Amino acid sequence: MRKSHPIRRVVLAGAATVSGIVLLLSLKPATDPGSAQAAGVGAPPAASAQGGAQAASGTVTGDAAQTQYGAVQVRLTVANGKITKAEAVQAPKGGQSDQITANAVPKLNQAVVTAQSANVDAVSGATYTSNGYMKSVQSAIDKANASAGSQGSGGSAQAATVTGDAVQTQYGAVQVRVTVAGGKITKAEAVQAPKGGQSDQVTANAVPKLNQAAVATGTADIDAVSGATYTSNGYKESLQSALDKAKASAGSSQGSGSQGEGGAAQARTVTGSVSQTQYGAVQVRVTVAGGKITKAEAVQAPKGGQSDQVTANAVPKLNQAAVATGTADIDAVSGATYTSNGYKESLQSALDQAGG
Questions:
Q1: Could you read off the pLDDT of 164-201 as tens digits, one per residue?
Q2: Residue 35's pLDDT is what?
Q3: Tally of CB atoms within 10 A around 207
Q4: Confidence band of 37 (pLDDT split at 50, 70, 90)
Q5: Which segment of 6-20, 43-57, 117-131, 138-152 scores lowest on mean pLDDT?
Q6: How deeply is 355 buried, as exposed, middle or buried, from its count of CB atoms within 10 A (0-12, 13-18, 19+)?
Q7: What span, in angstroms and rounded, lies between the C-alpha atoms of 113 and 292?
Q8: Is residue 118 within 8 Å of residue 145, measured between CB atoms?
Q9: 270-274, 291-295, 316-320: which is most confident
Q10: Residue 56 confidence class, pLDDT cut points 50, 70, 90
Q11: pLDDT for residue 251
Q12: Overall average pLDDT of the 53-77 stretch
């Protein structure tokens, strides 16, 4: 018998190995479980801050995210725990922003529905808008998850994650996310805090202490960190906003419908998102009972100089109109157009959270 040449045997063995590798690769599933979870598909709801919505249905509006070119705010439609629609109710406009928004927003809307999370790629040429969009989407997902988490059964305390409103301070925005279980704060973290220059050091020192204090006290009534007064005050304000949302969500899921014992409608208080205007921020808090607004108040409004007079005249009228109509579709107060528009925007955000 003729012997095979040693080099020929090496070549044949190498070819067989390559063929085997190709065959194995061809048999690999198109989507492996790890990749699916990374994309938010089939991942547990609490697996990451960028997870999708839990088993909930309805429409939820995220917080307005301020960007260098204007506010971005996203509304999600959720059915059986899946995002079926995403839309921007606010986006930068005017000048070149119109073209950028028209190009970027439809792509972002589609990407969120596909990914089922806020973890989507920024649109080229629209980085600020994309980042603001994703931040607002995450806020909406947090709200949807908080609502779903409070609707569980079996008597076990389910955890809900809620993101408070972004609070503007002299050194930058502060925004707090809390995890609440059994009516207690189990985790607190700052998703935004002042940065750059000396702010990095102040934030690194203050935020861990504030997080710890929030968990320890279970409230926003915590002491400011020495040397970080602005950051501390912004933190506490955002924390209170998150607790208001968590309380409103939990209150809406208790009892049968909106009726408590004796047929009396249960009241709940909800704080809307901060709406930035040309003269300052406007933020509205409403008390809702039996599907009606029983009280409306501005927890933030433009102040200083002539704004004090405008606010003093406009806000009481807007509060009264909100209660009278039960909606955010109210007339602007003459001479206070910016404040009125900001008020209505924040009011609508509060009603979205309340399910109104």
A1: 888 889 999 898 988 888 778 888 999 889 989 999 99
A2: 31
A3: 22
A4: very low
A5: 43-57
A6: middle
A7: 32
A8: no
A9: 316-320
A10: low
A11: 62
A12: 80
Instruction: Supply the DSSP symbol for 261.
Output: G
The interaxial angle of helices 337-354 and 306-325, nearest 10 deg, is 40
For 122, the token pair is 């920024």
The tally of CA atoms less than 13 A away on the side-chain side of residue 65 is: 25
Dist. CA 353–CA 347, nearest whole Å: 10
User: Cβ distance 190 to 239 under 8 Å?
Assistant: no
> CA-CA distance, 241 to 247, in Å (whole number)?
10
3-class DSSP state of 154:
coil
CA 136 vs CA 30, 35, 56, 117: distances in Å: 31, 24, 18, 11
Angle of CA points 19, 23, 25, to nearest 5°: 120
In 3D, which of 297, 353, 330, 345 has the Cα closest to residue 70?
Answer: 345
For 108, what's the count of Cα atoms within 13 Å in the CB-facing half-sphere? 34
| pLDDT tens digits along 90-131 | 999 999 999 999 999 999 999 999 999 888 899 999 999 999
Backbone angles phi, psi at 125, to 5 degrees: 85, 0
d(CA 261, CA 245): 24
What phi and psi, each to the nearest 5 degrees, are found at residue 232?
Answer: -65, -45
The beta strand positions in the chain, using DSSP E, are: 58-61, 65-67, 70-79, 82-90, 159-163, 167-169, 172-181, 184-192, 267-271, 275-277, 280-289, 292-300
The residue behind tokens 């300052």 is 280
What would the two tokens of residue 100 be? 């950028």
3-state secondary structure of 102: helix
C-alpha dihedral, 93 to 97 to 100 to 103, nearest 10°: 30
- Using alpha carbons, list the distances in angstroms from residue 15 to 4, 10, 23, 76, 320: 16, 9, 12, 53, 82
Least confident of 141-150, 154-163, 236-245: 154-163
